[in-house]
Amino acid sequence: MMFAQKSAVCISFCVIALAAPASLAQQGQQGDQRSADQSSGPIPAYRSPLASAAGYDQDEEPQELAPDTHALSGAQYLSLGTPTTRSYWQPRFDVSATADSNALETSNSAGWGAWTSVSGGVDVHRTSGSNDMTLSYTSGGMFSNYTGISNGIVQELSFADKFGFRRSSLSFFDSLNYLPESSFGFAGLGGNVLPGGPPLGLGNTFVPGQSLLTGYGQNLDNSFATELDTFLTPRTSLTFVGAYSLLHYFDSDLLDYKNFSFRGGYNYQVTRKDTLAMFYTFSGFRYSNFNQSIDDHTVQVSYGRRVTGRLAFQVAAGPQVVISRIPINGNAGSEGGGLGAAMNFTQVFWSLNTELQWQPNRNSLSLSYNHGEGGGSGLLAGSLSDIVTGSVRRKVSKAFSSGITTGYSRNEGVAITGTTTSNQTYDYWFAGASFAHPMGRALGLTFSYQMQYQTSNSTFCIGPTCGSDVIRHMISIGVGWHERPLLF
């Protein structure tokens, strides 16, 4: 695994080295683009996302947001804007108790049991001159009274750092999750959303994807990306992204894989709020315990709209050519169905990625939809997937919020003659609600409920038993201490 991660770093820096000479030859300036954005008038005052509904913030100045400067064809989704604050750090600590109807995620539930979850973490934002760095870390554990089930370990880290130059910018991103369950719909910490994932905002192409229930057991997913943006004029820019991601299961024989990806794109800012882009993306999936490789070639046209502090919307669509090779070594009797000589299969799909963030006052709405080829989430050797997520939240204090979250994924095995996963289809739903009651400036009581349900068109094995569906209910109560941002 360490060799794979070192390879990822090398590949990303190679992409930078190839793109850097082109960036130095350009005459546009990043400062020109930002000044053009702001020439239409001052940025309106914006109420801080940390503002309290309980009246604790009456003496505080409203926080302003700087316009979002993410490239439409870049590694990150568009955002509502960047807080124009000084450097700060923010610690947090949570304890919760959870009643779980099916902790093993098996087809035949063993009955209700209980979890105790403990977690702590810190969020850091450091800005200095042309450098902007954010970091979020969470560490915790899950302890259960279930017989025959081990305790779970939670480690989550996200990191983003951006360096601005005269005619370009260079960004680094890394997102790591070490969890006892699949990350899609994970609610093991009492219904608390892992804070490092959403703020980093990496696009679906650059993360390994765990959109299926895969049973209880530790797994690791990691995504690293490097982005170079070259500004040609105040309205146009080129974007180059090199990325590497991996998914590995420690306590099961599910499919481990890594993904190398590259993207090159052109961005054109039509108006202060509207942007168009066109880009090409290559993704290469390689499985460490299954003799198959998958290469994706995708061309998309994209539109984005940004209203600072209120709206961030983007959509990208285009054809996707998928080339599957099995077995990859071409030896008779090898894994992948024993087809003998290596065989290539070419399929053409359509791809669509869209993301919406809307924030009126203290409420916030987010929706996303992704369609296209994926790695298979450990259960399939490549899959055509549809993934939908949504949430509605309302701030009730400086540190706590209440809301509703939901998600759905459909994964269909890529049809390759001779494999056992060719026609398998999985449908997975999760839905939950959380309610927070502040008990002071930094302390709060939380209640939450979450449901997970997965079904398939044929029998599958998840945990120690096999079946065609899995259902799970979790009810949690917890206490959290979330300090307000501390300047430094």
Radius of gyration: 23 Å
Question: Distance between the terminal alpha carbons, to the nearest Å?
Answer: 37 Å
How many β-strand runs? Answer: 21
- Number of separate structural domains: 1
Q: What can be said about the biggest beta sheet?
A: 18 strands, antiparallel, barrel
Low-confidence segments, ≥5 residues, pLDDT <50? 1-62, 194-199, 330-340, 417-421
Structural class based on helices, strands and sheet pairing? mainly beta
State the shape: globular
Beta-strand fraction estimate: over 45%
Instruction: Quote the CATH topology.
Output: Porin
Query: How confident overall, as mean pLDDT?
Result: 80
CATH class descriptor name: Mainly Beta
What is the name of the CATH architecture? Beta Barrel
- The level of helicity is under 10%
Number of helices: 3
Please trace the helix and strand order, writing H or E for each element.
Answer: HHEEEEEEEHEEEEEEEEEEEEEE
In brief:
By secondary structure, the protein is mostly beta strands. It contains three helices and 21 strands.
